[in-house]
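User: Some background: our group keeps a shared notebook of sequences we're curious about, and every so often someone picks one and asks for a predicted structure to add to the entry. Today it's my turn. The entry only has the sequence so far, pasted here. Could you supply the structure so I can complete it?
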Amino acid sequence: LSALAQPGRLAVFRLLVRAAPEGLPAGEIASRLGLAPNTLSAQLTILSQAGLITGTREGRVIRYAAAADSIRDLIVYLMEDCCG
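Assistant: Of course. Here's the predicted structure to add to the notebook entry:
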């Protein structure tokens, strides 16, 4: 949950959920959200380490997408186990 607590990371995550299942190239994410490449890189690294997004190399481009299974697991945890 801490990965989503920062507004910039939450914006990246929300954009990728809307772009599911195809995802978006890093450059397009940066352009759509007005983020500097180094800032976006840090945001993507944290979201990826949290298991919320995945990155797939397509030649010289990395396409990022929401990790549907991990997101589903998180929602199930919050609904069933978190407050039980």
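Suggested note for the entry: Residues 30 and 40 are 6 Å apart (CA to CA). The radius of gyration is 13 Å.
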